[in-house]
UniProtKB/TrEMBL annotation:
Subcellular location: Cell membrane
Protein name listed in UniProt: ABC transporter, ATP-binding protein
One CC-aspect GO term: plasma membrane
Topology of this chain in the membrane: Multi-pass membrane protein
Organism of this sequence: [Clostridium] methylpentosum DSM 5476
Length: 567
């Protein structure tokens, strides 16, 4: 409606020019010019008001759709296995949730109303162009046809592929940026700035190469397109000269002036259609990316409330691969009795964390099965399983809330006294005493007021409050300084009493008392036994222990040298 109403003022303009040429040079006799002018203004205003009303409707719908997409995506992502979210990366997932849903909002709010206008305007224009002088009207359409053909070439199937490549390059760059920023503390600690920046720089270079090639590829067609849609005046002037044949009539002059006034609308409409085609590709790609996430299957839920008989853990021929090529775990079988403490050791990438994640059902094994108390964990309801298992990661996260609320996450109905007791058992009293509001002190998203070791102790307090019978410790002392490490170890000892414990550790001195140590290499268990038994075997673990002991000696010697220098 708005698009058609916007064409009515052009008819009044034609009437104004007609009346002026009729009475020329006695312009004062053109009595209807003012009324025609106000009528043109009135229809222009009505067109704007209708367009604003249309945009209001489309925006309300678009915002609602975008919000629903984000809600549905977040609901689905929280139900997905951890392995899936790790596969995408936090930067790529965040881009899909935010940017892809925004693309749908832009398309529905702006391009869909413009699409209606892009259909209505050419129909109305075609009537106006052919109504007054069909010859000039056809001439006006020649550059339109040329521009449309060039535009079809620019926005065809090849452009769809390029748009997908563009979005992929953007997603990769976004993902690498997030990972790089997260790793800055480690980069600064080890002075690896140039090497650490390489992946991020490669992503930027790849994006740069693609964008420059894409821009150069469109340079020539865009130049011809712009020339075609803006060259309509050349066709009209040539036609005017041809049609006059030496004599210029008022009617021809009237129509020529009118066509010169109205033809810029053609270029504007074509440009809108071109941007609509581009945005349609963007939103199509965005929907494909949203569907890709939504098509990821969440973990299956058991309808029967199967409760494990005990806290023993068994892995039977478990295999898992992140990329479908190389197995992170390969035919792993082990058995942990209730109340036992076992340790997983080995080089980075050996499969230790993957094994722990399988036990906590952050993702399911692709082959084999995991049992707790002789019950397959896939047959245990999620809430029952989570009540059975506590975990402390090497980089524990604290939310932006008070320490009280951070600890209470483990047990929402816990009393203040229970939380205080858990903090005391986790050796957190010195942390609480130095904070302005004690356990009611609000910490930042990553615990900006606390050191790494202090964050770990708060996380351990959370696990103590939960008091689950199975405990997973993934490098729980990794970021602790010597003083904090002692306190963390004391807290872990209190937490581990009477529980089935799986410890992942690089500090081999912390696992000498484990009931069983499993040595993992390339996703397979190559050795297992007690500390002393493995040392006597003189295998891989013996070599690891020797290297660890030499490193510890070197550290002590260097610390002693430092003391001598200070003295």
């Amino acid at each position: 409606m708005s698009a058609l109403l916007a064409l009515v003022p052009f008819w009044y303009i034609w009437r104004i020019i007609h009346d002026i040429l009729e009475v020329s040079p006695n312009f004062s006799q053109a009595g209807n010019v003012t009324s025609y002018g106000w009528s043109a203004v009135l229809f222009a205003v009505i067109s704007i008001v209708v367009y604003i009303a249309a945009l209001m409707c489309s925006h309300m719908s678009a915002f609602r759709v975008a919000a629903n997409i984000r809600k549905e995506l977040m609901r689905h992502i929280t139900a997905l296995p951890l392995g899936v979210t790790e596969k995408y990366g936090s930067g790529k997932l965040r881009r899909i949730v935010n940017t892809s849903s925004t693309a749908t909002e832009t398309y529905l709010a702006h391009r869909l109303p413009d699409k209606a206008g892009a259909v209505a305007t050419p129909i109305g224009l075609l009537f106006l162009l052919l109504a007054f002088d069909w010859r000039l009207g056809l001439l006006s359409l020649v550059p339109v046809v040329l521009g449309f053909l060039i535009m079809m070439k620019m926005t065809g199937k090849d452009m769809e592929k390029r748009m997908e490549q563009y979005q992929n390059a953007l997603a990769d760059m976004s993902n690498e940026a997030v990972e790089y920023v997260r790793g800055v503390p480690v980069v600064k600690t080890f002075g690896q700035t140039i090497f650490s920046f390489k992946r991020f720089k490669d992503a930027i270079d790849n994006y740069e190469t693609w964008v420059i090639a894409y821009t150069k590829g469109l340079r020539l067609p865009m130049m011809f397109y712009t020339t075609a849609i803006n060259g309509v005046f050349a066709f009209l002037i040539a036609g005017g000269i041809l049609f006059t044949r030496g004599s210029v009539t008022n009617e021809l002059l009237l129509n020529l002036i009118f066509y010169i006034v109205i033809t810029p609308v053609i270029g504007t409409t074509l440009t809108k259609i071109m941007f609509m085609s581009e945005d349609a590709m963007i939103v199509g790609d965005a929907i494909n990316r949203i569907d890709e996430v939504l098509n990821e299957k969440p973990l299956s839920e058991s309808s029967v409330n199967n409760i494990p008989k005990n806290n023993g853990i068994t892995l039977e021929h478990v295999s898992y691969s992140y990329d479908g090529k190389k197995n992170a775990l390969n035919d792993v079988s082990l058995s942990i009795k209730p109340g036992q403490t076992v340790a997983l050791v080995g080089a980075s990438g050996g499969g230790k964390t993957t094994l722990a994640n399988i036990v906590t059902r952050f993702f399911d094994p692709q082959k084999g099965r995991v049992l707790i108390g002789n019950t397959d964990i896939r047959d245990i309801p999620k809430e029952t399983l989570m009540n059975k298992v506590s975990f402390v990661f090497q980089n524990s996260r604290l939310i932006k809330a008070s320490i009280l609320e951070n600890v209470r996450m483990a047990k929402p109905n816990a009393t203040r006294e229970e939380i205080a007791h858990a903090l005391e058992a986790a050796q957190c009293l010195d942390i609480i005493e130095k904070l302005p509001n004690g356990i009611d002190t609000v910490v930042g998203t990553k615990g900006v007021y606390l050191s790494g070791g202090e964050q770990q102790r708060i996380a351990i307090a959370r696990a103590i409050l939960k008091n689950a019978p199975i405990l997973i410790l993934d490098e729980a002392t990794a970021f602790a300084d010597p003083d904090n490490e002692v306190r963390v170890q004391q807290a872990l000892s209190a937490l581990s009493k009477g529980k089935t414990v799986i410890m992942i550790a690089h500090r081999l001195s912390s696992i000498t008392d484990a009931d069983c140590i499993y040595v993992l290499q390339d996703g397979e268990i190559i050795e297992s036994g007690t500390h002393n038994g493995l040392i006597e075997r003189n295998g891989i673990f013996t070599k690891m222990w020797k290297n660890y002991s030499e490193a510890a000696e070197w550290k002590i010697l260097n610390e002693n040298k430092g003391l001598e220098v200070n003295a």
